[in-house]
Amino acid sequence: MQYLKLVWLSLSTISFSLICTYASGEPITLKGINLGMTKSQIEKILNSQGYKCGKTKDSPGDEYIECQKDDFGSIGVHETKLEFSCMNFDACGLGIGELAQELVDAGIVYRMEYDAKESLLGIFSLSYCGRGDDGDRLCVTQAGIQDENFAFKSPPVILIEQGRLGKPGLQFN
């Protein structure tokens, strides 16, 4: 019985350390880019892949780089996140759960957890998110509007968010 407790404790410690340790791996990388790179490095890589990049502003007026490639989608390069349209991966026909599982199966993150948010106005946001080895976050999101007569869902979007990228992991001592 003592042996089983020791094995369980060892496995629990290893699992917990895998979950709580950051800054030991590489940032999450999709299409050859990640948040450990400068904007100019990202733009250079995307230009070499045939994307055309330019500066633009979002609705609050924050400037970011938008890169587009014919009908293959767009990539938004913001200060603390990278935003990939589903067309970059030929994944617009997949549900967000399927797309999240594809990212886990590809080894991009170990697991992704589901989250749903809804406002009083019928606007909702669905997402699956997971942490990378270096503390950044990968999310597959989908927004929509729903009332008793109408429902609309946007195509899925993949986000890489800064999270705790490059910062020390959680400390409990």
Would you give an account of this structure?
With 173 residues, the protein is an alpha+beta fold. Helices cover 23% and strands 31% of the residues. The chain contains three helices and nine strands. It is globular. The N terminus is likely disordered.
Structural class: alpha+beta
- Helix-residue proportion: 10-25%
For the secondary structure, the number of strands is 9
Low-confidence runs (pLDDT<50, min 5 residues)? 3-23
Q: With helices defined by DSSP (H or I, 4 residues minimum), what is the helix count?
A: 3
- What's the gyration radius in Å? 19 Å
**Averaged pLDDT:** 83
The secondary-structure element order is HHEEEEHEEEEE
Gross morphology: globular
- Span of the ends, CA to CA: 29 Å
Main sheet characteristics: 9 strands, antiparallel
Residue fraction in strands: 25-35%
Short description:
The chain has 3 helices and 9 strands. By secondary structure, the chain is of the alpha+beta class.
Task: Give the tags.
9 strands; disordered N terminus; alpha+beta; 3 helices; 173 residues; nine-stranded antiparallel beta sheet
How would you summarize the topology of this molecule?
Blueprint (H helix, E strand, L loop, with lengths): L1 H19 L18 H10 L3 E6 L5 E6 L5 E4 L3 E5 L10 H10 L7 E6 L4 E9 L5 E10 L4 E3 L3 E5 L12
Antiparallel strand pairs: 1-2, 2-3, 3-4, 4-9, 5-6, 6-7, 7-8, 7-9
